[in-house]
C-alpha cells in the first residue's frame, strides 16, 4: 500500500504499489508480443514517451481564439473541438479512457478521437486488437492505471473540486496517480507549477504521464492578485438577473493570459524533455446564450473548447 500526502494534511491511501508491481510484471511479459500485435514499435522506458494532459477548466473556445497565448502557442495553435461532456467529472472520465475533445471533420492529427487518439483503452485485453491509428493502447481502469501498468511515473494535480481526493465520488479521477497534489482551491496555479517542477527535478529515467487541471478559468474567473473580488461571480446560474456577459469575457480572458504566463517556463521544460501534449478545456460556459449560464447543460457554448495536440518526435 502506498500513502500519498495531500494538501491540508489530508492523507490518501491507495493500493497502487501492489497494483504497479503486478502490472509491471505483466507489462514486461507482454511488451514484445503486444507491440508486435499492435503494429507499434517497442515501448521505450528510458525517458521517452512522456505525455502531458493539461485541462484549462471551463475555457471557452472563443475566448481562447481571441486571446494572445504565446506560451501555449509554443506547443501548437489550438483548433475548435467538442468536449466529451458538459461538466468536469464526466468530461475527465471520458478523457481518461481516451475520448478527448475532438472535431470529427478535422484533418489535424489526433483531432478526431473516433479515428485517432493519443491513447486508447483496450476494453477487452484478451481480444485481439485491431490495427489502428491510435498512438498508444493501454490496459487498465483508465489511462492513469494504464500508464502505471506500462511502467511510467504518473503525476496528477487537479484544482477544481471534482479532483478533491477526500470524497468517494471524486476518487475515480485521482486514485491511480502515483503522486497527486490537490491545492485545495481553484486559484493556486503557482503552487501546482511549483509541485510539478519539483517532481521533474527529482525525476528518474522512466517515462512520465503528467496531468494538470487548472482552475483559474473556472467561475468566478479569478487569478492571484487579480483586481476584482472573487466572491463576486458574474456567471451564476442561480442568479441570472445579476450576471454580466461582458465581465465574464473580460475576466476569463485575463485569467487565460495569467495561465499562459505562469505555464511558460514549465511548457518549455516539458518540451525540452520531449513530452507529447494534449492541452484542452473540459467544457465551456454559457454566458447568457438562450438564457443559460455556466456549464452542466447541453449547449453548443458548453461543448466548444480549444484543443492543442503535439506529439514529440520520440513518440511519433
Ligand atoms: Zn470543468
Question: How does this model look, in words?
Answer:
This protein is α/β, with parallel strands linked by helices and 316 residues long. The chain has one domain: 3-Layer(aba) Sandwich (Alkaline Phosphatase, subunit A). It contains 8 helices and 13 strands. α6 runs parallel beside α7. The site of zinc ion has 7 residues, from loops.
Arrangement of strands in the largest sheet: 4-13-10-3-9-7-8
Largest sheet: number of strands, sense, barrel closure: 7 strands, mixed
Uncertain segments are: 1-47
Count of DSSP strands: 13
Helix content: 25-40%
SSE order and pairing:
Blueprint lengths: L1 E4 L5 E4 L1 H23 L11 E7 L4 H5 L13 E4 L5 H8 L23 E3 L14 E3 L4 H8 L2 E6 L12 H4 L4 E3 L7 H13 L6 E7 L30 H28 L2 E6 L5 E2 L5 E2 L5 H4 E7 L6
Amino acid at each position: 500500500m502506498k500513502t500519498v500526502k495531500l494538501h491540508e494534511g489530508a492523507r490518501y491511501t491507495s493500493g497502487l504499489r501492489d497494483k504497479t508491481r503486478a502490472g509491471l510484471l505483466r507489462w514486461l511479459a507482454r511488451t514484445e508480443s503486444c507491440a508486435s500485435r499492435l503494429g507499434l514499435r517497442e515501448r521505450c522506458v528510458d525517458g521517452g514517451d512522456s505525455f502531458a494532459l493539461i485541462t484549462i477548466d471551463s475555457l471557452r473556445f472563443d475566448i481562447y481564439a481571441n486571446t494572445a497565448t504565446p506560451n501555449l502557442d509554443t506547443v501548437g495553435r489550438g483548433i475548435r473541438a467538442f468536449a466529451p461532456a458538459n461538466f468536469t467529472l464526466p468530461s475527465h472520465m471520458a478523457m481518461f479512457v481516451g475520448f478527448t475533445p475532438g472535431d470529427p471533420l478535422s484533418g489535424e492529427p489526433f483531432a478526431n478521437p473516433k479515428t485517432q487518439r493519443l491513447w486508447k483503452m483496450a476494453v477487452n485485453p484478451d481480444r485481439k486488437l485491431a490495427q489502428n491509428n491510435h498512438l498508444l493502447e493501454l490496459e487498465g481502469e483508465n489511462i492513469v492505471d494504464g500508464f502505471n501498468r506500462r511502467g511510467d511515473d504518473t503525476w496528477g494535480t487537479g484544482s477544481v473540486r471534482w479532483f478533491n481526493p477526500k470524497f468517494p465520488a471524486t476518487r475515480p479521477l485521482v486514485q491511480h496517480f502515483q503522486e497527486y497534489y490537490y491545492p485545495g482551491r481553484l486559484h493556486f496555479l503557482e503552487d501546482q507549477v511549483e509541485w510539478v517542477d519539483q517532481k521533474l527535478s527529482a525525476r528518474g529515467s522512466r517515462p512520465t504521464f503528467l496531468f494538470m487541471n487548472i482552475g483559474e478559468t473556472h467561475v468566478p474567473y479569478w487569478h492571484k492578485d487579480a483586481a476584482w473580488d472573487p466572491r463576486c461571480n458574474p456567471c451564476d446560474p442561480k442568479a441570472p438577473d445579476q450576471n454580466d456577459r461582458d465581465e465574464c469575457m473580460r475576466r476569463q480572458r485575463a485569467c487565460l493570459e495569467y495561465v499562459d504566463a505562469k505555464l511558460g517556463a514549465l511548457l518549455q521544460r516539458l518540451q525540452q524533455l520531449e513530452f507529447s501534449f494534449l492541452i484542452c478545456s473540459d467544457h465551456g460556459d454559457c454566458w447568457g446564450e438562450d438564457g443559460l449560464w455556466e456549464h452542466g447543460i447541453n449547449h453548443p457554448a458548453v461543448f466548444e473548447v480549444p484543443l492543442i495536440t503535439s506529439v514529440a518526435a520520440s513518440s511519433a
